[in-house]
Amino acid sequence: MATSASSKLNKAVKQQYMDLPQEDKVQAMYIWIDGTGEGIRCKTRTLDSEPKTIEDLPEWNFDGSSTYQSEGSNSDMYLIPAAMFRDPFRKDPNKLVLCEVLKYNRKPAETNLRHTCKKVMSMVENSHPWFGMEQEYTLLGTDGHPFGWPSNGFPGPQGPYYCGVGADKAYGRDIVESHYRACLYAGVQICGTNAEVMPAQWEFQVGPCEGINMGDHLWIARFILHRVCEDFGVVVSFDPKPISGNWNGAGCHTNFSTKEMRDDGGLKAIEEAIERLGKRHRYHIRAYDPKGGLDNARRLTGHHETSNIDEFSAGVANRGASIRIPRSVGQDKKGYFEDRRPSANCDPYVVTEALVRTCLLKEEGEVPTDYSK
Question: What's the domain of life for this entry (predicted)?
Fold first, then answer.
């Protein structure tokens, strides 16, 4: 199986240097989303002391013409620190810093979708919106072939791999365990993981997170996964349908609740929210993958535990529906619901914002309301 040349370097030699003291200095890795809306970039600067809050971190800049974010003639972009985590690769006191990107005129870059999400979340903070996102992904060799699959064929059909145990069922568990522990160290609200239906496909869950924290924690969890895979010499794909044919796609099921839904009798609020979602299906499909629904069209076929992209449906414990109400919620008459439509490569800021707009701000129609005016 094809793995990267970097992963074959002697890690014991690297460790000699990583064990050196760094005196009173701190390395801060600034992380941002590039112009594709899916790619993640990073670079590191030295700080003179350990930052305790986000306000302690300086703004920075980068060349946007090399990240699909600007032209070369006016390429400076600003990095605005937004969320800070412990660095599981360099360890304390070093930091990971998730940033928003501003253009030369200090306006949000086109793929800085955090900016609007934060404003929308601030409008509903009294409702205490909680989210939990189930991030599916596929491990690939550097040649794009699924990790552990035969070089000239396919593994056995789906069935034994979901939550599977054993070398013939679980492909790449070392990566999953490393990522889980790294997220815990960093302070990411990771709450679980499991092997998925297709071999070399896995899932981790992040949440519950309130408001803007959902997007922050999922993007950092994705960054950490990319870095862990880099160390192992393999590639992680968030493509919603990495292998065509009779294989499951990859989604990012999103669980959502408000204080009203979680309180006694909350099922009424859940049903009202689902009714609103049903009337705005096309808006949500456009918001739930970076290509306005084109990526999800390959995944949401009505097969392989998905709903049909053109139809809205909801049901208790139904994994073939757009919206699933867990059986326990139907029994307790309160709790949360699961939107199964978001794709694995969705932007969590857009997904969580769309849910709040429709369910809490009670927007209708195909176009989101502009609250900046």
Answer: Eukaryota
154 in a domain, yes or no?
yes
Residue 93, preceding peptide bond in cis (omega within 30° of 0) = yes
Cα-based distances in Å from 191 to 23, 150, 187, 209, 217: 35, 32, 11, 11, 11
Same domain, 292 and 185: yes
DSSP assignment, residue 216? H
Structural domain contains residue 207: yes
Q: Within this chain, do residues 293 and 179 fall inside the same structural domain, yes or no?
A: yes
In a 3-state reduction of DSSP, which class is residue 86? strand
**Rounded average pLDDT per 10-residue block, the chain, 373 residues:** 92 96 97 97 98 98 94 86 98 98 95 97 98 98 95 92 97 98 98 97 98 98 98 98 94 98 97 97 96 95 90 88 94 97 98 98 95 81
User: Domain for residue 10, yes or no?
Assistant: no
Q: Let me know whether 277 and 156 are in one domain.
A: yes
- Look up residue 288 and give its DSSP letter: T
pLDDT reported for residue 152: 86
Residue reference for tokens 């060349």: 63
Specify whether 156 is located in the same domain as 49.
Answer: no
pLDDT at position 268: 96
- Determine the Cα–Cα distance for residues 242 and 247; give it in Å rounded to an integer: 9
**DSSP secondary structure of 159-206:** SS-TT--STTT---HHHHHHHHHHHHHHT--EEEEEE-SSTTEEEEEE
> Which pLDDT belongs to residue 93?
98
Nearest to 60 by CA among 42, 34, 90, 81: 81
Question: 132 and 29, same structural domain?
Answer: no
Structure-block tokens of residue 49: 């002391």
Give yes or no: residues 95 and 131 share one domain: no
Give the integer Cα–Cα distance in Å for 120 and 122.
Answer: 5
Those residues whose C-beta lies under 8 Å from the C-beta of residue 102, and which sit 6 or more positions away, are 77, 78, 80, 108, 109, 112
CB 191 within 8 A of CB 130: no
Q: What pLDDT, on the 0 to 100 scale, is given for residue 372?
A: 81
